[in-house]
Write a structure and sequence with these properties.
about 200 residues, alpha/beta, Rossmann fold, 9-stranded mixed beta sheet, two-stranded antiparallel ribbon, about 30% helix, about 35% strand, globular
């Protein structure tokens, strides 16, 4: 199985004065179903870079959770780690797949403006994916209504909110739905991850 680095949300436990890294166990099950072995990366910059530099990482998954610091989020250390890992992935030519917040990190990187939106927190939402209608979940309060180069849109909600992007020349993809939360896992999501990370 190919190993992919997987970022984690920051969970704050004020009663214990702790900032914890957390990852839904569903991610391990989903990535395994895609033929991928997840390597959870801590939100400590120097450790994250050392881990990804020494481990046999063949790709990067940017997961959901935590608003970006630029949007009022409270996990700036996560922003720093994910942008540094994007630098590393680009330098090494590694494929990247961003989910929800992960796609917003990609959009932020390429200066796509994000804004607060309404009506995008739902267990089921119909969107257009490359010309076909599909039901996905949606759990985000920020989004974009435009995309510009080097990113292009390949999925969109009826109100114009961008639901998926990809880089025109680099192996960077983003989606705004959570494949790990679908039960059973959607064959289209599994196929997407296998294609992005070139699982045979």
């Amino acid at each position: 199985m190919k190993t992919v680095a997987v970022t984690q949300r920051v969970s704050i436990a004020p009663d214990r004065a702790e900032r914890r890294d957390a990852l839904d166990q569903a991610w391990a099950r989903f990535l395994c179903a895609c033929g991928l072995l997840p390597l959870a990366v801590p939100n400590v910059l120097e450790v994250a870079l050392a881990l990804c530099g020494q481990a046999p990482v063949t790709g990067l998954v940017l997961t959901g959770g935590n608003d970006l610091a630029a949007l009022g989020g409270d996990a700036p250390e996560r922003d720093a780690v994910e942008h540094a890992l994007l630098d590393l992935a680009e330098h090494r030519g590694l494929p990247v797949l961003g989910v929800c917040r992960g796609m917003q990190v990609i959009q932020e990187r390429f200066d796509v403006p994000l804004r607060r939106i309404e009506g995008h927190v739902a267990a089921q939402q119909a969107i257009s994916i490359e010309g076909r209608r599909e039901m996905v979940n949606s759990y985000h309060c920020y989004g974009a209504l435009e995309t510009h180069g080097p990113l292009e849109t390949w999925a969109q909600a009826d109100d114009g909110v961008i639901k998926a992007v990809r880089h025109r020349s680099l192996p960077i993809t983003g989606i705004m739905w959570h494949p790990e939360r679908r039960s059973p896992f959607a064959a289209t999501d599994v196929a997407l991850f296998r294609r992005v990370f070139e699982v045979g």
